[in-house]
Design goal:
The protein is an all-alpha fold and 99 residues long. It is built from six helices and no strands.
Length: 99
C-alpha cells in the first residue's frame, strides 16, 4: 500500500485500509481451493461500526487484478453469506452483483 494513499485519513480508516490490503494479499497467495476458508477465518463483521464500512469493491479490485477466478470466489462467498444470514436488504445484493 502506498503511503500517500493513507495520508489525510483518520487513524481508524488507515488501519482498516491496511487490513483490506493485507487480506487481499493473503487471498492472492492462497490456492483457489482455500479462498472461502480464508474468508471464513479472516472476515470480521464490522457492520456495528459506522466509520468502518467494509470495502468489497477495494478488496475485489485488488484480488481481481492478480486473479479473476479468486475475485469471483470472494464475490460468491459474500453472496452466500448474505443468503445464509437471510439478509433482506436488496441493495446489498445489487451492489455486490454490480461489482
Amino acid at each position: 500500500m502506498v503511503l500517500g494513499q493513507l495520508r489525510g485519513l483518520s487513524p481508524a480508516k488507515r488501519l482498516y485500509k491496511t487490513i483490506i490490503h493485507q487480506l487481499a494479499q493473503r487471498l492472492i497467495q492462497e490456492p483457489i481451493s482455500g479462498i472461502k476458508t480464508t474468508l471464513d477465518s479472516e472476515i470480521v463483521d464490522k457492520s456495528g461500526d459506522e466509520n468502518l464500512e467494509f470495502s468489497w469493491d477495494s478488496l475485489l479490485t485488488c484480488v481481481h487484478h492478480h486473479s479473476p477466478p479468486k475475485a469471483q470466489l470472494v464475490l460468491e462467498w459474500q453472496l452466500e453469506k448474505l443468503l445464509k444470514e437471510n439478509e433482506k436488504n436488496e441493495n446489498l445484493y445489487s451492489d455486490l452483483i454490480h461489482l
